Amino acid sequence: MAYSDRFNKFVPSFILPHEGGKFEHDPDDPGGDTKWGIDASSHPGVNIAALSRDGALDIYWDEWEKENIETLPYPLGEIYFNCCVNSGIGEAHKILVRETLRRSPYPSSFLDDYDNVYKEIVANHPNREKFLKGWLQRNEDLRKLFGIAEAV
């Protein structure tokens, strides 16, 4: 399958390394079984345990196209897509809508909003606190990758 240059520059080098290719079943993860960031809850019918790297890329490409990432400005599209992967399309869409209603959506404000979403998740689901440090670090990695300063 042929992917866009933008997809090729982001998903294999950022999403896949952050998600990893190890099969995981964490009872505190509402996505259920996960591999390469592809979860059973969002992808019924996919054999998660047997999912290959190339299979994950194909799924991500379908989602990239469905979400029209190429039409979003760089790097907002990449940041939005990361949110789709890590928290689901529904959550990513809510943040994008909030940011659009507040102002023109900027990558920095999207990430600031997303940090707050993570903290709210933990406040409402204390059993997910073990994920918070990694979630916030992932957003910090996006800030570094795209040269975005964190809000003070």
Task: Explain what this protein looks like in three dimensions.
By secondary structure, the protein is mostly helical. The protein has one domain: Chitosanase, subunit A, domain 1. 60% of the residues lie in helices and 3% in strands. The chain has 6 helices and 2 strands; from the N terminus they run αββααααα. The protein has helices spanning 5-19, 53-66, 76-87, 89-102, 107-124, 129-146; strands at residues 34-35, 38-39. It has a two-stranded antiparallel ribbon. A hairpin with a 2-residue loop joins strand 1 and strand 2 (38-39). It is globular.
The dominant shape is globular
Widest beta sheet: strand line-up: 1-2
Which homologous superfamily in CATH is the superfamily? Chitosanase, subunit A, domain 1
CATH architectural group = Up-down Bundle
CATH topology: Chitosanase, subunit A, domain 1
Measured by DSSP, the beta-strand proportion falls in: under 5%
Distance between the termini: 42 Å
Counting DSSP H or I runs of 4 or more residues, the number of helices is 6
The sequence of SSEs as H and E is HEEHHHHH
- Characterize the biggest β-sheet: 2 strands, antiparallel
Radius of gyration equals: 15 Å
**Overall number of structural domains:** 1
Indicate the structural class.
mainly alpha
The portion of residues assigned to helices is 55-70%
Task: Report the count of strand segments.
Answer: 2
pLDDT below 50 for ≥5 consecutive residues: which ranges? none
CATH class: Mainly Alpha
